[in-house]
Amino acid sequence: MMHGFANPKRFLTLASWLTPLLLAAGLVLSGGALWWGLTQVSPDRLMGETVRILFLHVPAAWLGMGGWTAIAISSLVYLVWRHPLAALAARAAAVPGLVFTLICLVTGSIWGRPTWGTWWVWDGRLTSMLVLAFLYAAYIALAQAAAREGVSARIPAIFGLVGAINIPIINRSVVWWNSLHQPPSITMGNSAIDGEYLAPLLVAVVGFSLIFGGIVLARMRALLADIQAEARLRRRASEAV
Amino acid sequence: MSALKPKHQRLVLVVLALVALVGAGLLAAYALRNQANYFYLPEQMQADPPAVGQAVRLGGMVEQGSLKTDNDGVTLRFAVTGNDGSRIPVRFSGIAPDLFVEGSGVVAEGRLAPDGTFVADNLLAKHDENYVPRELEGMSEMQAAKMAEETTVGLE
What residue of A is the nearest CA neighbor of B15? Predict the structure, then answer.
């Protein structure tokens, strides 16, 4: 079963109709959720209107962490089962993961100025999230270099697994250490976020996740096309000689 | 080991490496648990006071009813309380952030004065994990449900 989609042709047929579907559904849901959150909900008792950044900040933070989780799982599948598409999936998830992490950092900074009174502090949560952004940048550079030099994709895969140690640290940072960032609002089955905010937030999370999935599939198709084009060029060059 | 398929050998190897990695990460986080704190709680500051004049941060809740403004209009005096009732008086001259109110979280950057007062150069407001719309503040759940019912009448 695991190798059912190892066949690139079967994967491409699936991806070719799934990609636009995910992107379209994601755009509709996240656009609707942002409209809902930015214009319809009432201001927070303390923060006032700035609470609306929640609907972009939280999905971006979760997807920034989700992106590296996807890299780690794909890397594990690649290392153990040598699944050829898993290495591509990990590479494809890195760029959207970095973008969502940066969105999280920027929106958090903009949110911090009016609420906390500062753009940035070096507390556990903010620092570990910044480290995640650097890890993404390093992973992208490493995976690209490995692909260009024809080195085994095992090196970025190992880096993807090692870097995953940061994910539980980000998650637990506000619990283990005193931090300026507040503790988690949503824990196992409990939410300290009022239903009026929670509903558009969850829709936004689903919508942005679908966009994330669509981008990963689109990037995997582009990477596969690159590999095919290169193989074709190489074949033609060897025939010419 | 020779009976294992290469696939399973790799799986065992990766799982062992991951266990070692997570163990190392947890040990590192455990060793960092005091160093990586962004601020002292009042009970931590009282148990192990920093040297007078050393730049530190104090964090906790602004005690209800403790916030007073001096006659100069810019000097605030309040007490920061921790989780176990310990409190430290704080003096601050300057502009406080909007979220700085009694009963809310605060992080004060500054230093301990010889008399035990914490002199802050800067105040950061700490938000808690609760997000509540303004209209519902202080309402019981039943009141809130009743209001939601009233305000949504006719929307169907």
Answer: A76
Q: Which of A168, A57, A179, A152 is nearest to B107 (CA)?
A: A179
d(CA A108, CA A102): 10
* Domains by residue range for chain B, with CATH: 42-126 (2.40.50.140)
pLDDT in tens, A94-113: 999 999 999 999 999 999 98
Task: Residue B105: list chain A partners with CB under 8 A.
Answer: 182
Global confidence as pTM = 0.86
- Residues B90-94 have a mean pLDDT of 91
Closest-CA distance, B70 to chain A, in angstroms, reads 22
Q: List CB contacts of A146: < 8 A, sequence separation 6 or more.
A: A152, A153, A155, A156
Q: Cβ separation of B7 and A80 shorter than 8 Å?
A: yes
Residue with tokens 């656009």: A31
Residue B139 contacts A where some CB pair is shorter than 8 Å: no
> What class does CATH assign to A50-183+199-236?
mainly alpha
Contact A183/B at CB under 8 A: yes
Beta bridge partners of B93: B75
B126: which 2 tokens? 């700490």
ipTM over 0.90: no
pLDDT tens digit sequence for A172-184: 888 888 888 988 8
**Closest residue in chain B to residue A192, using alpha carbons only:** B130
Encoded tokens for A94? 């890195």
B37 contacts on A by Cβ (under 8 Å): 177-178
